[in-house]
């Protein structure tokens, strides 16, 4: 089956975008794994499938798939890429809800919605204070997908990420962020992503890290998050919505064999 695709990235977090609004190919899990493979396929951190929206107010339905074939509820960097791909200021329909977008030159802002802070919403496997988990004193929340942030040394991501992603406390696995607070308006972050491993940037992880840092009293509500691939600006507004601003880049267009 031949597929047209566009390769894009947000701060080095790269995606294969397939526009299926005219013809949905109904990709099998094995096909998704093959397309994401960096040696035998196109290669990406996530495959992004665009289909016709089913909710009023949405311009496009967006689904995010990890390299292992599992589906993610949200992806901030990919959402910026979709906004650029579609053009204008589209509202994205995702598993995490409707995500409005805005654009200022080469920068795209996604309203990532309101974080969910209850242990059942993350979700966790047992009742816990999500501000202080019994696991490396992490702080947890959901940004449409489960996140836990560990404050201290960001270099621990390689050593701890894989094991913590699959810890029994996270029944749906989790994205694990390792954040170092540099100032009240600046942090360093590395994220071990669920189903993808360590990536150059994670948009929803940056949102979660700022939310969790504010809850801990470590940063202000607007913060620059520096990741391996570059910087995002995150604002947790007073109304509860989290705004993420950063670039999106088109790399090339192609067709599979």
Question: What keywords describe this structure?
Answer:
257 residues; alpha+beta; ten-stranded mixed sheet; eight-stranded mixed sheet; 4 helices; 38% strand; globular; isomerase; cytoplasm
Give me the secondary-structure topology.
Blueprint: E1 4-10, E2 13-19, H1 29-36, E3 46-51, E4 60-65, E5 71-72, H2 76-86, E6 92-94, E7 97-99, E8 101-104, E9 107-111, E10 139-142, E11 146-151, H3 157-165, E12 175-183, E13 186-193, E14 197-198, H4 203-216, E15 222-227, E16 230-236, E17 242-247, E18 249-255
Parallel strand pairs: 2-3, 4-6, 11-12, 13-15
Antiparallel strand pairs: 1-2, 1-18, 3-4, 4-5, 6-7, 8-9, 9-17, 10-11, 12-13, 13-14, 15-16, 16-17
Pfam families: DAP_epimerase
Active site: 75, 202
Pathway: Amino-acid biosynthesis; L-lysine biosynthesis via DAP pathway; DL-2,6-diaminopimelate from LL-2,6-diaminopimelate: step 1/1
